[in-house]
Design a protein that fits this description.
The complex is a heterodimer of chains A (400) and B (565). With 400 residues, chain A is an alpha/beta fold. In chain A, the strands form two sheets. Chain A has a four-stranded parallel beta sheet. In chain A, helix 11 packs across helix 12. The mean pLDDT of chain A is 92. Chain B is globular, with a radius of gyration of 25 Å. In chain B, 38% of the residues lie in helices and 21% in strands. In chain B, helix 2 packs across helix 3. Chain B folds into three domains: 159 residues, FAD/NAD(P)-binding domain, CATH 3.50.50; 140 residues, D-Amino Acid Oxidase, Chain A, domain 2, CATH 3.30.9; 139 residues, no CATH class. The longest helix of chain B has 30 residues. The chains are: A alpha/beta (400), B alpha+beta (565).
Chain lengths: 400, 565
């Protein structure tokens, strides 16, 4: 049955603003743009599912089309749905399988992090990956940590958290757990400085890479697990995440795309900068010393889709001694696992080009952004180190 | 004045006229078909495109029902690219008389229509958008048929067999020699007059046949019955859904290409109003509310257009209502009837029986002309339907072209796809983004399918028939007319204006919600952005400039005079 909630394509008035804002169709003629692939094509696909175009695979799901749409058409969702309902690319692709299992791969890789980091850094291995796994030679994989953030939290941080009367539940996501422990530490530090104790529930990968690679059933399983786990206990304390894409999935995509009931947690989920912004607004501003650095801020697509950029900017402006250059809104091109695939590499690079140029022109000392894959892409393509806004606050707190 | 000589003149380019042209051409006769507007621009193109199984007539009109199922089977064979074998359902709503269901099953059995009762659960599986409260369901071999494609394919075949097609050409009089008609006079859009001489004139002008016969001094009386329909944005159903009750208003929803059509109303009108028909608000509310009872989602779907046609029923005394009148075929030999040799009239019938009507007419024509050849139109497939449509994945010639483009072109033109699509990027540039009409398809239509303006082009390709109703394709199409059709820039602008007016006419009755928003946006693009609101001023200025051109010429002679002095 054609469900009423899925007929937003009927509202499209073909103004084509979405296609103007689509970074992929600007970069390549292979992708006809969100209007053509979304609302236009949906009518054809309803008529005959065989009329589906393989060009759908070039969509990065950055969701800029949905931000641009004046008619509230769920363009990115239409395309994602069509991609996996109609294309049926469900044969076993080792690369996509492992790339989308960030928690499985991360869990193993952290055990042997030294060896793993060494091996995936070798040219010979990268040539092998380029040829056989179709992973571009030039991509630099994020380094794996020696241990997981959960272990660190259990060992070192958990004991002091009960001192605080208020608490937040932290959804750390795979990146903090396996690749960037220090962001987790920074989060705990900032929360503690705001007077909040941090608690963690059991969690699985939020499902974003699974959705992007077409493992919808597995994504649903993870989502069900996460919803149940986050719902357990915790009262009405906020669930805070440091990854913008994880937040969007938990809060929106679980219900709208995976068609699951997340009403028990949706209102409590907050992206970290919005949470901090509200604390700052009510006067709860910890003592920060002047940082004395110049940084360029890049706004990730999914954070823009959530309307979260203003909160990040709000808190960054409260950090003393941070000279902030706000970059024009551009997609970095990595789009999660998208840029890690041979067939998308050139598109990914040309989408990101204007952002890299903007960064170079701004001549910062650091780049600040909220998203982990944006960070990887920028670090791969510019000479700058990329910080999370929470890390920037933690740095300002640290100065003695 | 031009002069053409031929075997047979056919007046009227509807499905019947096109069918006769093809039939006679296949029997070796040369025809000239004269149509005052465009192929399938009258009643033929103004129906819901249902490939009748005959079940709709099975209770009341056994003869029509039998004709329908016979033609249904033939058309599925010869016109496969104009047809989609969707299957049909008859569903009984709680409001309906449950006894009709039985009558229908018996009627179908009597007429030889395979009708099978199925469980409600199965019906909902077949058509998930159906009202779940239905009481019973019946499967019949209904389908959908595209009247534009069907007529166009018949014309194409007739043309390829040597016939001449004159569209946008109006018959202005008949040429008589004693008590015999020997030809007709006609005039085209540019005012050029032509005399066509033939052994036989066939009046296949449908509802306008009354006017044509009047030219020859013969009186026939048509019984105009208006039917209105509504198009909604996308295919809300994939199976034809009929209401199981005696035929009435708003009781059928037909999936047609990318849209669904809600049909129909029936209303008596006077003959002098047949050219100025509009759909009234009352008809629209009836169609929408009745369709919603069959498929509840109709309420949430955008209505694209409303349109109406006139059934070409021949008046027979004692019958009062449009629906009750027989849709049977009326073939009149004016020699027998009126003592006038050289002319026959075919009227009545319906799109479904166009081929049968053509066959009967051609049989009579051949008898009159002393030709002994059998009809083969029921055996030889139409151009495009020669082979069973190959699965698009098997068409390797087109790798690299988007599947939606290949699939849509194949759907519209069948095997002729091979003369349309090439791997040249310019060829498969999409011009109409709603219906995936490419530049190559437009070139083909303009050059091969008797296209004279953008409205004709729409009938051949579906350009401008999607939800945007020409917003993004109309100006591109107008531009291509210059490239492929040889129109001047000024002519292209006039084609564009006419096309937008025609689109606007059908949208006007259903302008609310998203349709209204989009119409306003389109209005802004053309009137504001492209400056079409100032067309008259532009024309006026141009006149001024032209006048100025004349003035210096006068001045020159003055100068000469001065020099002379």
């Amino acid at each position: 049955m054609i469900k009423i909630e899925n007929i937003s394509f009927d509202h499209c008035i073909k103004c084509t603003v979405c296609t103007m804002y689509c970074p992929v169709s600007q970069a390549t003629h292979l992708f006809p743009g969100p209007k053509a692939s979304g609302p236009d094509a949906e009518r054809l696909r309803i008529k005959n599912p065989e009329l589906v175009d393989s060009s759908l695979k070039f969509c990065t799901n950055c969701k800029r089309c949905e931000i641009a749409c004046p008619s509230d058409v769920k363009i990115a969702e239409l395309i994602q749905n069509a991609k996996w309902n109609y294309l049926k690319i469900h044969w076993f692709r080792p690369r996509d399988f492992f790339m989308s299992r960030t928690d499985l791969v991360g869990g193993i890789a952290t055990l042997f992090s030294g060896i793993v980091n060494f091996i995936i850094g070798l040219s010979i291995v990268r040539i092998f990956m380029h040829l056989f796994l179709k992973i571009p030679f030039r991509t630099v994989f994020p380094k794996y940590e020696k241990t997981t953030f959960r272990r660190i939290f259990k060992k070192e941080l958990r004991w002091s958290q009960s001192e605080y009367s208020k608490k937040v539940i932290y959804f750390h996501g795979c990146y903090v757990n396996y690749n960037n422990n220090s962001l987790g530490r920074d989060f705990v530090k900032v929360m503690n400085a705001l007077g909040y104790g941090v608690e963690m529930k059991k969690e699985k990968c939020c499902g974003v890479p699974l959705i992007a690679n077409g493992y919808i059933e597995k994504a649903k399983k993870n989502a069900v697990y996460n919803i149940a786990s986050l719902q357990k206990g915790g009262g009405d304390s906020k669930i805070v995440a440091t990854s913008s894409s994880c937040t969007f999935a938990l809060k929106n995509e679980y219900s709208s795309f995976l068609e699951l009931d997340n009403s028990g947690i949706a209102d409590r989920i907050e992206f970290v900068t919005r949470f901090i912004y509200n604390e700052f607004l009510s006067g709860n501003i910890p003592k920060m010393k002047p940082l004395g650095i110049r940084a360029a801020y890049h706004s990730p697509c999914h954070l823009e889709r959530m309307g979260g950029v203003m909160y990040t900017l709000g808190i960054l402006k409260k950090i003393p001694g941070l000279e902030l250059v706000v970059l024009n809104s551009e997609c970095c091109g990595i789009a999660g696992t998208y840029g890690f695939k041979n067939e998308n590499y050139d598109i990914s690079q040309s989408v990101g080009k204007s952002l890299f140029n903007l960064i170079d022109k701004a001549v910062p000392e650091f780049v600040i952004t909220d998203c982990e894959t944006c960070k990887m892409q920028i670090e791969m393509n510019t000479k700058y180190k990329v910080l999370h806004p929470v890390t920037a606050i933690a740095m300002a707190l640290d100065i003695k | 004045m031009n002069r053409i000589e031929t075997n047979v003149i056919i007046i009227g380019g509807g499905a019947t006229g096109a069918g006769i042209a093809r039939d006679l051409s296949m029997r070796g006769l040369l025809c000239v078909l004269i149509e005052k507007n465009d192929i399938a621009s009258g009643t033929t193109g103004r129906n819901h495109g249902l490939l009748h199984s005959g079940a709709r007539y099975a209770v009341k009109d056994h003869e029509s029902a039998r004709e329908c199922i016979r033609e249904n089977k033939i058309l599925k064979k010869i016109a496969s690219h104009c047809i989609e074998d969707t299957g049909g359902l008859f569903v009984t709503l709680p409001e309906d008389d449950p006894a009709y269901h039985r009558n229908l099953i018996e009627g179908c059995k009597y007429a030889g229509i395979e009708a099978k009762e199925i469980s409600i659960r199965k019906a909902l599986e077949m058509e998930p958008n159906l009202n779940p409260d239905i009481l019973s369901a019946l499967v019949v071999p209904d389908g959908t048929i595209d009247p534009f494609r069907l007529s166009s394919a018949n014309i194409l075949d007739a043309k390829e067999r040597g016939s001449t097609i004159l569209t946008h050409t109006k018959v202005t009089g008949v040429i008589k020699s004693g008590a015999r008609i020997t030809g007709v006079e006609c005039i085209d859009l540019k005012g050029r007059k032509t005399e066509v001489y033939a052994d036989l004139v066939i009046n296949a002008a449908g509802i306008w046949g009354q006017e044509v016969s009047a030219l020859a001094g013969i009186e026939i009386k048509m019984f105009p019955s208006k039917g209105s329909m509504l198009i909604i944005d996308y295919r809300i159903n994939n199976v034809v859904v009929n209401r199981c009750r005696p035929p009435a208003d708003g009781d059928i929803i037909v999936p047609g290409d990318t849209v669904s059509l809600i049909g129909t109303t029936s209303k008596e009108i006077s003959y002098d109003r047949i050219n100025e028909l509009t759909v009234d608000d009352e008809e629209i509310s009836i169609l929408l509310s009745d369709a919603e009872m069959l498929i509840p989602n109709v309420r949430h779907t955008r209505a694209l257009r409303a349109y109406c046609g006139v059934r070409p029923l021949l008046a027979v005394s004692g019958e009062a209502q449009g629906r009750n009148i027989s849709r049977g075929i009326a073939l009149l030999d004016h020699h027998e009837r009126d003592g006038l040799e050289g002319m026959i009239t075919i009227a009545g019938g319906k799109l479904m029986t166009y081929r049968l009507m053509a066959e009967k007419t051609a049989d009579l024509a051949c008898e009159k002309l002393g030709i002994k050849k059998e009809c083969t139109t029921h055996l030889v497939p139409l151009p495009g339907s020669e082979k069973k449509i190959a699965r698009k994945s098997r068409i390797k010639d087109f790798t690299g072209i988007p599947d939606s483009v290949v699939g849509s072109t194949l759907y519209r033109h069948g095997q002729r796809l091979h003369s349309i699509l090439t791997k040249n990027k310019k060829n498969y540039r999409v011009i109409c983004e709603c219906e995936m009409v490419t530049e190559g398809e437009i070139e083909y239509a303009i050059k091969k399918l008797e296209v004279k303006d953008l409205v004709d082009l729409r009938r051949r390709t579906r350009i401008g028939m999607g939800p945007c109703q020409g917003e993004l394709c109309a100006y591109r199409g107008a531009g291509l007319f210059q490239e492929f059709g040889g129109s001047t820039p000024e002519e292209s602008v006039i084609l564009l204006q006419d096309f937008l007016e025609e689109r606007w006419k059908g949208m006007k009755p259903v302008l609310w919600g998203d349709g209204l928003r989009e119409a306003e946006f389109t209005y802004w693009i053309y009137q504001g952005l492209f400056g079409m609101a100032h067309m008259d001023e532009v024309k006026h200025k141009k006149k001024k400039i032209l006048n100025k051109d004349i003035l210096p010429a006068d001045a020159k002679t003055d100068n000469k005079k001065k020099k002379g002095k």
